[in-house]
Write a structure and sequence with these properties.
With 214 residues, this protein is of the alpha+beta class. It has helices at residues 8-17, 51-59, 70-78, 87-98, 138-152, 165-169, 177-189, 203-211; strands at residues 20-22, 32-34, 38-41, 63-66, 102-109, 112-122, 125-133, 157-161, 173-176, 198-199.
C-alpha cells in the first residue's frame, strides 16, 4: 500500500491484529505489513541489567524525559545508512503521537538528545518501534526507564518485534505467533496509562524496579 495512505486508525487496527508496517528503504513510496512467525518480547518482570548498566543508570549525568520531542526521536532513529523509517512513516507515527497513542522516552546530556526509544501504546500493550544511541549505553538506559514506566503504569506486554543479540542480553525472548496473539488479546482487554510528558523516574526508582526483575 502507499505509505502516504497510512492513518492513525489504520495503524491501531494493525497493531491490534499483531502486525506492523515497514518500508523497504527511506525513499520507498510503499509500505508492507509484517506478521513475524516468531515475535520478540521483553517480559516486564525479566529485564536483565548488567553491573555496568546499573552503574551507568546511577552515575551518568543524563536527564530522562517522556514525550518532550517525539519527532526528534523518530528522526534520530531514522538517521542511519539504512532505515525502514520513510518520511511518510515518520509522519504517520507523528499523527499517532498527536492522537495520544505513540510515545517517546528520551535521554539527554544537557540540551543534546543522545538516546531514546519510541513506540505505540494500546490497551496494556506497548509496541517498541525503534531506538537509537549516541553515547555508550544511552539506548539501554532508555529501555530501563521504559521498563520501569510500563511496569508502574499497568502494562502487561512489551513487544520489541524481532530478536537481536542486543535485546536478548536485556532479557528479550522469542515466542510463537500464536502465543504472541494470545498475550496480545489479554493485554488489549486491560487498560494502562503511559503517563504525562515530562521528567522520568529517579535513577534510584529505576534501579529498585530492575533489581526485582534481573
Amino acid at each position: 500500500m502507499r505509505a502516504a495512505d497510512l492513518t492513525p486508525g489504520m495503524l491501531l487496527r494493525g497493531y491490534a491484529r499483531g502486525i506492523f508496517p515497514m518500508a523497504e528503504r527511506r525513499d520507498a513510496d510503499e509500505v508492507f505489513w509484517v506478521d513475524p512467525r516468531r515475535r520478540a518480547v521483553v517480559p516486564l518482570e525479566g529485564f536483565h541489567a548488567s553491573r555496568s548498566l546499573r552503574r551507568r543508570i546511577r552515575t551518568a549525568p543524563w536527564q530522562i524525559e517522556a514525550d518532550r520531542d517525539f519527532a526528534a526521536v523518530v528522526a534520530a532513529c531514522a538517521d542511519r545508512e539504512e532505515t525502514w523509517i520513510s518520511p511518510a512513516i515518520a509522519a504517520a507515527y507523528g499523527a499517532l503521537h498527536a492522537a495520544g497513542f505513540a510515545h517517546s522516552l528520551e535521554v539527554r546530556e544537557g540540551s543534546e538528545l543522545i538516546g531514546g526509544v519510541y513506540g505505540v501504546a494500546l490497551g496494556a500493550a506497548f509496541f517498541a518501534e525503534s531506538m537509537f544511541s549516541r553515547r555508550t549505553d544511552a539506548s539501554k538506559v532508555a529501555l530501563a526507564h521504559l521498563i520501569h514506566r510500563l511496569r508502574s503504569r499497568g502494562f502487561r506486554l512489551f513487544d520489541v518485534q524481532f530478536q537481536t543479540p542486543h535485546l536478548a542480553s536485556l532479557g528479550a525472548v522469542e515466542i510463537s505467533r500464536g502465543e504472541y496473539l494470545r498475550r496480545l488479546a489479554e493485554a488489549l482487554e486491560a487498560r494502562a496509562d503511559f503517563g504525562p510528558p515530562g521528567p522520568g523516574a529517579q535513577p534510584s526508582e529505576v534501579l529498585h524496579a530492575i533489581s526485582q526483575t534481573s
